[in-house]
Amino acid sequence: MNTLKSLILTALVCIFCAAGRQSAPSLAGAWKPVGGDGPPVVYVLSDGYMMGAFYQGNSFMGTQGGTYKTDGKTLSITLEFSTDDSTQVGRTQTYTIGSLSGNRMVLRTDGGEQTFERFDQPTAQTPLAGLWRITAREGNNGQMSPMQRGPRKTLKLLTAGRFQWAAINPETKQFSGTGGGTYTFKDGKYVETIEFFSRDNSRVGKSLTFTDELKGTDEWHHRGESSTGGKVSEVWTREK
């Protein structure tokens, strides 16, 4: 009997430990606020990184982003860039997750609560989804030149069908530019449609087609022409 009780107790402990080790729900995808009076905003999250852009029509209003962590009960975001208030760069904002069910999430702060809806979620069929950093670019000599890793960086964050890039330096709190919108990737053809661009709003609405190749899962070769007609030949590496 003592042996049986011991086996049952051991089994229960294993079950409870396993339950405690369950990972927090994934927040990967594109989110937008439900209701509210503020400017339209789209947040993209993946690989522990978040970018958010405020824009309406072809007017760019602002952006912010940084790393995030969640345990399913709280969401903590440490900003790496913010056009609204650069003094917030390096600081961590923590929100209480009031509820998270499917594609609806309620975040609470001392100032109240806000509901968000996920409308775009990565799957196994969207291999580009995640956080990427540019690591090489072709020079005038036609040779691919590696880019030295440092605090200044250009990141691109993709979900199933949305993207945003940002050129930033969290160390100096400098923001150099951002852009984003929707994308498709099929049979080696990558197409971006620009919905916002901080440097030049005349580019909004343009679609750009590139020849792209994934080498393994962590190296992305990107070739084509920019929105100004310049040649683009870059290597992006998955940021981990």
Entry keywords:
240 residues, mainly beta, Lipocalin, 2 domains, eight-stranded antiparallel beta barrel, eight-stranded antiparallel β-barrel, 1 helix, 17 strands, 8% helix, globular, disordered N terminus
In total, the number of strands is 17
CATH topology of the largest domain: Lipocalin
Helix content: under 10%
Strand content: over 45%
The CATH architecture assignment of the largest domain turns out to be Beta Barrel
Estimate nothing, just give the exact number of structural domains.
2
Structural class: mainly beta
Give the biggest beta sheet: 8 strands, antiparallel, barrel
> Per the principal axes of the C-alpha atoms, what is the gross shape?
globular
- Uncertain segments are 1-22
In N-to-C order, the SSE pattern is HEEEEEEEEEEEEEEEEE
Strand order of the largest sheet: 1-2-3-4-5-6-7-8
Q: What's the total helix number? A: 1
Q: Distance between termini?
A: 51 Å
Q: Which CATH first-tier class of the largest domain would you pick?
A: Mainly Beta
Mean pLDDT across the residues is: 89
Structure description:
By secondary structure, the protein is mainly β. The protein has 2 domains: 29-120, Lipocalin (Beta Barrel); 130-238, Lipocalin, CATH 2.40.128.280. The protein is 8% helix and 57% strand. It has one helix at 2-20, and strands at 29-33, 41-46, 49-56, 59-70, 74-82, 92-101, 104-109, 112-120, 130-138, 144-146, 153-158, 162-169, 174-186, 189-197, 207-215, 219-225, 231-238. It has an 8-stranded antiparallel beta barrel. Strand 7 and strand 8 (112-120) form a beta hairpin. The longest helix is centred in the first third of the chain and has 19 residues, at 2-20. The protein is globular, with a radius of gyration of 21 Å. It starts with a helix and ends with a strand. Mean pLDDT is 89; it is low at 1-22.
